[in-house]
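Appendix B. One record, verbatim.
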Amino acid sequence: MDEISSEIDSLKEMSEKINNIVSIVQSIADQTNLLALNAGIEAARGFNVVATEVRKLAEQTKISVSDVSGLIAQIKERVGTVSNYAKQIEVLVESSNGGLSEASEFFSNIVRETEQAREQNTNVEKELSGVSFVIDEMNEAIRQLAVTADHLNDETSTL
């Protein structure tokens, strides 16, 4: 029983860490969006296309992070449910000699909730993979914007 509680506590800690990472990525997306806005304002008309793409990528990142946050909240809820089941089982086992069928039902619920949590973790992994891809795209767009800005600066200097 202690092992189940320990594992559940570990899952809760991991969910908190994932939530912190999501917050950091959210902040990066917000900053990238602001950077794209500034680039659009400062850059010549030709650069506006790149700035718009960076802004779109930042918004996609923001949406993905929001989806991941929702999944994490669901995982936390499931872990809490499993934790409650484990506590109920512990009370049942301690107080009853003949409550095996009830304990069996609780264990079945734990197994079901754990499987659902595992599925949600898989979904979180997929969402984080999508966020990573979007961030890579944003980095490439920013790199292209910098190259274009340098080129424009060189052209302006020669004039």
